[in-house]
């Protein structure tokens, strides 16, 4: 992402860029766990599944903003620590990153 923005919450980095176009789906997301940090594919897949599930459970609270503004986003989550974190830790970080991406959003929590 050449012209994107970046935000970090400890072990997860979020890169994104906005486009002013009408696209379906309005948000495309990529999840990455570097092979350099986790040699075993089992570990990389576990972390990617946890990130995808955390995003899936919380995206509906945030994506409606893009639909209303006719914006499209490309987002990339990168896991960047050597430790395997629990699902709740990953979910909390992804929610914080999404709140930072959508500052006008009011949380239901």
How would you write the strand order of the largest sheet?
Answer: 1-2-4-3
User: What is Rg?
Assistant: 14 Å
Separation of the first and last Cα atoms: 32 Å
Fraction of residues in H or I helices: 25-40%
Characteristic terms for this protein:
3 helices, Ribosomal Protein S5, domain 2, elongated, alpha+beta, 4 strands, 39% helix, 109 residues
Structure report:
With 109 residues, the protein is of the alpha+beta class. The chain has a single domain, classed as Ribosomal Protein S5, domain 2 (2-Layer Sandwich), CATH 3.30.230.10. The chain has three helices and four strands; from the N terminus they run βββααβα.
Overview in brief:
The protein is 39% helix and 25% strand.
Write the layout of secondary structure elements.
Elements: E1 5-9, E2 12-19, E3 27-32, H1 41-58, H2 60-69, E4 72-79, H3 87-101
Helix pairs in contact: 1-3
